[in-house]
Queue: 2 jobs
Job 1
Amino acid sequence: MLYREAGQFKASYAEDAQIFPIRQDRIGFWLLMLVFGVAVPFLASEYWLKAILIPVLIFSLAALGLNILTGYAGQLSLGSAAFMAVGAFAAYNFILRIEGMPFLVALVLAGLTAAAVGILFGLPSLRIKGFYLAVATLAAQFFIVWALVKFPWFSNNSSSGVVTAQDVTILGYTFATPEAKYVLTFLIVAFMALLAKNMVRSSTGRAWMAVRDMDVAAQVIGFRLMRTKLLAFAVSSFYCGVAGALYAYTYIGTVEPEGFNLDLSFKILFMIIIGGVGSIMGSFLGAAFIVLLPIFLDNFVPMIFGDSLGAGFVSNFQLIVFGGLIIFFLIVEPHGLARLWQIAKEKLRLWPFPH
Amino acid sequence: MKLKQTVLLGAAMAGLLASSVTSAAEEQFIGLPSYRVGPYAAGGVGIFGGWIDYMQLINERDGGVNGVKLTWEECETEYNNARGVECYERLKKKGSTGNTLFQPVSTGITYSVLEKVAQDKIPMVTIGYGRTDAADGRVFPWVFPMITTYWSQASAIVNYMGQKEGGMDKLKGKKIGLLYHDSAYGKESHAIMDKLAAKHGFEVIKIAVAHPGNEQQSQWLQIRQAKPDYVVLWGWGVMNPTAIKAAAKTGYPREKLIGVWWSGAEEDTVPAGAAAKGFVAAGFNVAGANYPVVADIKKHVYGKDKGNMEDKSRIGSVYYNRGVVHGIITVEGIRKAQEKFGKGKSLTGEQMRWGLENLNLDDARLKALGATGFMPPLKITCADHEGPGKVKFQQWDGTQWKAITDWVESDRPLVRGMIEESAAAYAKEKGIKPRDCSKES
């Protein structure tokens, strides 16, 4: 009833091409931005900001990066965590070794470094596809983490290999409080998500999708495969790299190579599978699902069962429920949470008179 | 705070997260970032089980510390840094005075919350892991890498070898293999071993084993060729039994294979079977259930069916006893702080920090606790947050661990020098002005 587009006419190309063609969506979007950008920093407690909202945003960005590569360009990758590690260590070294390096510039340079490494490991994609490519990117995962441990230069000769991120200072203002760090993360993630959304709607994105759907056909109609695939690797790694740098600087505060292991790569892959492959919004939904569900279960399961069952059982039970819910969602909607949302929207347009 | 959450996520979630503590009596809350699932679960179940059992013992037998009941809550980290940070934030405001002591039992989580604990004024105790140079209490007032650190351990192991050879000068010209887990944890051994090698004139052969370490053929071939006089096993998890078995296959004497404390538990030797017989490992706590403190836990805690361990046969194992050590330090820190800030009162994190900084577990105190020989005597000062740096060497006799030495000292001046150097570099990088310990009371 409320969600009707009747009477909304598109009178110009700009109106026709906008991201949210329906007015209700636009209002909803800006409300969401206002809530998360303005209200949340004022209202949320330190715990919510530091332990829940910041990681969800950062993992959303990483998932977004992988979604560009896997969801849009169709190249399966298991190296996302490694590219995050590249970004984190690159940002650390840029700030450490170059006097007066501004944080945002370091962030972009970190992304570019990750993009360069991404292109390097994307080269095999020109010859191999599908699961074989996944194995090639697996090499990136192991090689990068190994290299970061092997060469102490990356961690500035820290005896344990763990480095502490420097303070985040932009134009003389130090982002020290959880609120400030949240706002910074939010702005960067929102900006990059907008960028990604426009990228996938542009000719670049169309080229990716053409390659994804059938690369021979795409080549025949004139897309340059090498350029398209490597661009997807570069952009994807750039996003992962920035996510890694944010992970170090606004979230955990330290960087250690082992933190960016294969488990994290799988986690990011699961985020896009659960959230929706080939969907910007799906990256956010998937990241929220994977990050929040274990925390929710950790609070919820002991509340139901109390102490009667023993902590070991409770911990294992959470994992069982977590796995069960993932399977449940995949059976209910194999295309992910984003698709569920889309179906809900279509139903809502007809509601309450479906005929 | 509750209002904010309600606004944010509705009443249902707020209800979940609101603190469930309602008791009016004085209490002392300890947050436990435990891991009972995941790759490190075997250690986590033992350590957190022993720790909880000891706190339960204090509640059951003594009615708390001077009447202050200990309360705790577990938070599953899966040994994952991000989950550990979430747990730290979740636990820090619980209880009447907030979380007063954080022991992550994970080096990664230690680093992740290192700066947060100073801001939140919550002391962090890291026993046998974590950041070694935090032993310099002038630079790291809130971090306590107690009893011993990796560097002290490496030095103590070399001293043990010296003892075996009949004098430190006999180490000259010897070859010592260092079979290490190829990770930040394993590399922690390099700098100290190089220093010790230069000092005593032995040669270190560093051999890396990639995680997880269930394939070590080439490494042991290298050991066979180099014929080192000793091999230090700086391993973790499945790497340990694999190394022990490979040593047996290669014919390398197990008596010369010396494990670190993350290589010397029943979980490392039992899977290796008969091959493990004779294997020696360092430890800052010993195995065995025949200590009065463990007997008391059996009597007062398991007697009332309030024990935490599901597998009761693990009571008295290396990891379980390590958890009891965690418990003893927690409780004794509270006791010491109460002496200054009022007996029978809940403490804040700041008060708890004072208690830990003035902790003195001498032989008499350990005897009263029923822990003589169970852990080394411990004295913490403002400048020295580590303490004795001593370890005991235990040998696996095929069925259980047997202590074969007394507490072995480390090379204190050398290790302390490295710690101070490294801490000073950190202080310079972070712009920290070290405390003046002569002004602390």
Job 2
Amino acid sequence: MMGRGRLAAWGVGLAALVALPFVYRDPYHLHILVLILIWSFAYTSWSMMGRFGLVSLGHGGFMGIGAYVTALLWNHAGLSPWFGIPISMAAAGALAMIVGYPCFRFRITGHYFVLVTLALSGIVLQVITATRDYTGGSLGYTPNRASGNKLLALQFDDKTTWYLIALAIWLFGIVVWHWVDRSMARYALEAISEDEDAAAAAGVNVTAEKLKITLLSALMTALAGAIYCQYQMFITPDTVSGIAVSLQMVFAAIVGGLFVSLGPTVGAIITILLAESLRIGFGTKAVGWDNLVYGVLLVLFIIFLPKGILGSLLDRLKLQRKVPRAHEQKAVQVARPGT
Amino acid sequence: MGMQAFLDVFDIYLLEAVINGILLGGVLALLALGLNLIFGVIDVTWICYAELVMIGMYGMYFMVQYYGISYFVAAPLTILLVAVLGAALHYLVIAPLLTAPPINQLLATGGVLFVLQSFATVTFGIDFRNLGIRLPVLAFGDMNFSYARLLSFVAALVGMVAVYLFMTRTFTGTAIRAISQDRQIMALMGVDAKRIYLITSALGGALAGLAACLLVLQYDVHPFVGLSFGPITFLICVLGGLGNFIGGFIASFVFAEIISLGGLFSDLEWGYVLAFAFFIVMMFIRPAGLLARRR
């Protein structure tokens, strides 16, 4: 239950976030904020299933489908993103079902599930590259500039508008996270993540529960990809799809904290600020360095702080308040051997 | 029926593609063997496996092209280099996580994937490089086969036989097989599990190194080259059953044929897509094939 104090804190924080672009108008900083909000939404979408032990490395694929299908429909069929985005989300959702159903039905879990989803994002990348006549291949793709109605084309030049859109999308992600957190599905999925057979014996429909959360997560990730494309107006297979993007999601969610609602957001803030400061500090020499630092940090975090920065901080603040769930306890043991 | 008549029955290009698929299968089987070995013994999946191959390919490129070392001298050095990398990967990343949930170990190797890719980007740049060795093309009837592919196939088979002999004829190999059957009891039998894990990791690395020496003959090396055969290796291992050597071997050739025959009708990338589609269909119709040796 959310206490009155926390609700008030959320309200004040949100009001401040909405007011921000009207007070502070530096375009570069607003741009960074928009990126942080969009990626936070993507990372939150990933953590929706990641927190239940369903580690997917296929989300780069869903994000790529969201971005490319929307842009392709706009350029080739003249279909407004208002229709293109739902279609792209449906496409990503359908793919998630096609891959997810046999995985869950036939109990493909753990290593197997990770490898199958890893291959999925690899294949989406290959398809985008292979259809280079339409998608521009690895050179990237640009949605055509709208000649008429900007709103219809979902293209805005104004950073403030984008900031508010991104803020709304991000907030939507956080609300969905809390909605799942308070639903029966959460208990079912936690039971599944701890012992699939026991959960099934207790009457949980394992396949259906897993499919539902996977579908939700894939739909949201595709939306993140489409919004990213509309904002940046330029996408390449490497920035919105593929294994690297999937790993980036895992990294941010783990660094921020997988089991708390704002964890992925904290992860996005840290990773994007890190990448930007490296870019400013080293200029074009920084190409590759940000990922090098990401990779080293990911390994260090998994070894020393698997609950992430925010997760560990919150744990320290309310040590006695709740007993960690079993799959979190396992992670904590790694952080503090012998406890 | 004469040879010519036999060739007339089959479409000549089809036969060529089938044979090329078998040749490709050899290298894929080598990769699958390395990954299965690591999984079978240490119960860890190195998702950075293809990136180790990429580093090995750069090693070959620099030794042969830059320092002018002969290919046949550079190859053992590369195998050694990647074997050391494999052992280091185990020592630095996997060993501290051995008691952690398996998914953490896998994600940590994902971090290593990032590190290796960006290390290559930072150090070598994103240019495509090749050895500059152009091996002759073998003509057989009306069909043409790349000598490089044939050589790779033979070397991959020799490598696999060597691993088989090592596993069955030496004490260390026997200990490796034993530890994959029962992790707990072997420590009581006086086998040093830490040492066995390190040796297995080095062996897995050596197989990646051998694959690197062979792949560099056929493909240009660049920091993201691992992405073009990494995913397919994972599919092979899942279809064959992780840790199942025979399953991985058979699945390698099945996938290689699909890629090769798919490539006959369009680009190589579509061959990969076809292989993935096949994989999904197989999961529906033969899930038991996937479930060999599941934990």
